[in-house]
Amino acid sequence: MTVTPRQLSIIKRSAELLDGGCVVIDFETTGFPTDPDVGIVEVAVIDSRGGILMNTLINPQRRIPSSATKIHGIRDKDVVNAPTFADIFPDLARILSSTPAVAYNYSFEKAMIAAVCKRCDLIVPKVEWSCAMRAYTVYKGLRAFKSLSSACSEEGIIVENAHRALADVKMTLALLYTMAAGS
């Protein structure tokens, strides 16, 4: 692979995030951040070596629309006894405020945490975000974004349990390692 300066910057940034320590985060939700009643139904956060820092279902304190369940498979009965976002927020905020965070589509995660914090009257943590989806687009010289599953399939990364938070952060981390290796 002939490496362009833009691709080289992605390779270097990926390596810096992994070497310096980052976390990878993913939310599964009831919908989109534009919905004022949106809720998070699952969150997973892992460190740059794959250690699980947080992996929990969350009770969104509202019904989960069937359209969302079709994507991630999480139903109302699955979250009835789960903690609320306010319950897990102190730990999540501590993790996100202390370490750079990578998400496959960081604009979604960033908007989601802001929307749910607003609804729950919580202060949005200051997060140093990096977007693996945007990085992958530059890394591969693409004109359009690829889904996480498509990007992983293309790189030979096993795709299983897509659209579950823990599986998605593990795939994102594998993709980050692939980009850091420049392969």
Which descriptors would you attach to this protein?
183 residues; alpha/beta; Nucleotidyltransferase, domain 5; 5-stranded mixed beta sheet; 5 strands; globular
Detailed description of the structure:
- The structure is a single chain.
- The chain is an alpha/beta fold and 183 residues long.
- It has one domain (5-181): Ribonuclease H-like superfamily/Ribonuclease H (Nucleotidyltransferase, domain 5).
- It is built from eight helices and five strands, in the order αβββαααβαβααα.
- It has helices spanning 5-20, 66-72, 76-79, 85-98, 106-120, 132-140, 148-154, 165-181, and strands at 23-29, 40-47, 52-57, 101-103, 129-131.
- It has a five-stranded mixed beta sheet, sandwiched between helices.
- A hairpin with a 4-residue loop joins strand 2 (40-47) and strand 3.
- Helix 1 (5-20) crosses helix 8.
- It starts with a helix and ends with a helix.
